Amino acid sequence: MTTAFTLRPYRVADEDATITLWQRTWQQAYPSIDFAKRVDWWRARWRNELVPNAAVIVAEQDGQIAGFVTIDPSGYLDQLVVAPERWGSPLATALVDAAKQRAPSGVTLLVNKDNTRAIRFYLRSGFVEAGEDVNPTSGRPVQRMAWRP
Question: Structure pTM?
Answer without folding.
Answer: 0.90
